[in-house]
Amino acid sequence: MTRWLDDDEQHAWRSFLAASQVIQEELDRQLQRDSGMPHAYYAVLVRLSEAPERRMRMSELAAGVNSSQSRLSHAIARLEERGWVRRLPCPADRRVSWASLTDAGHDVLAAAAPGHVEAVRRCLFDRLTPEQTGQLAAICAAVLGERRS
Amino acid sequence: MTRWLDDDEQHAWRSFLAASQVIQEELDRQLQRDSGMPHAYYAVLVRLSEAPERRMRMSELAAGVNSSQSRLSHAIARLEERGWVRRLPCPADRRVSWASLTDAGHDVLAAAAPGHVEAVRRCLFDRLTPEQTGQLAAICAAVLGERRS
DNA sequence: TCAGTTTAGTTGAACTCTCAAGTTCTTGGG
DNA sequence: CCCAAGAACTTGAGAGTTCAACTAAACTGA
């Protein structure tokens, strides 16, 4: 009844799991060590820094970093404690909050970025040919495509 | 100074992050919902079930599931509470513990496996061509290869 | 109008993971 | 033989994530 994985799939699956874990852990460790934040928080700062006026609605921001609303809410609370983000009420719809990157947050991000990019290169792109980089993008696009529910 | 990511790399990187997060979360949710355990614990049970006599030293097991010793120690403590794993002292070297899969643990694993494989297919292999499966394996092998430190 | 539904976001508890420190045991050189 | 160094594992505290429940505000249609 169950369609088990064949040998190729089994191998690809285990390699994928190991590789994605190794990358996640390496990035988390690097950012925690050098900038005192987990990768998820870094992603929030990046996304905010790219938004017009460096601010976004909580739910947009959550979608933009693949996070649940709850997780983002906790994360923003932490980032607010550190003075890197501020919450602003939205006059047009009072259910909505804006998250806004502060100047201090922007500075922290600018300081963290070079080391982070270096880590990304070291654990991913330095190990791939340009052709493989393209293949990876296509594979990930297929995984993300037409996602239901 | 910093070698920033070019457009292709930027795109590949963000796709990869999103895809691997989506897959991780989907699997975690499925296993938690249907079998009451996180994916990391499932991996421990799988690895143990494949070992001779269904038991392994803690440090081998940790390496086998890409886990730190500390994380594994906590995980085995939980799994032991549920009666799915037992710890056995090693007579030859008294620093060593064996983790051993119980019959109950084996049954739980057997019950969890079909739903898990189905989820893996749904979120990964059903979306890839066989060629892409091979490419993914090669890419992940490159990421994992010759890892120092 | 207003009751019911949907949307936005927050909160608290339970759980997992990380990091640093600690315990117990083995090993290797003097 | 003995002690310092290293190895195997555990522990506890702190931090992040998840889930379900909750508040508050905005729609919807009868």
From TrEMBL, chains A, B:
<feature type="domain" description="HTH marR-type">
    <location>
        <begin position="1"/>
        <end position="145"/>
    </location>
</feature>
<dbReference type="InterPro" id="IPR036388">
    <property type="entry name" value="WH-like_DNA-bd_sf"/>
</dbReference>
<protein>
    <submittedName>
        <fullName>MarR family transcriptional regulator</fullName>
    </submittedName>
</protein>
<dbReference type="InterPro" id="IPR036390">
    <property type="entry name" value="WH_DNA-bd_sf"/>
</dbReference>
<dbReference type="InterPro" id="IPR039422">
    <property type="entry name" value="MarR/SlyA-like"/>
</dbReference>
<dbReference type="InterPro" id="IPR000835">
    <property type="entry name" value="HTH_MarR-typ"/>
</dbReference>
<dbReference type="Pfam" id="PF01047">
    <property type="entry name" value="MarR"/>
</dbReference>
<dbReference type="GO" id="GO:0003700">
    <property type="term" value="F:DNA-binding transcription factor activity"/>
</dbReference>
<dbReference type="GO" id="GO:0006950">
    <property type="term" value="P:response to stress"/>
</dbReference>
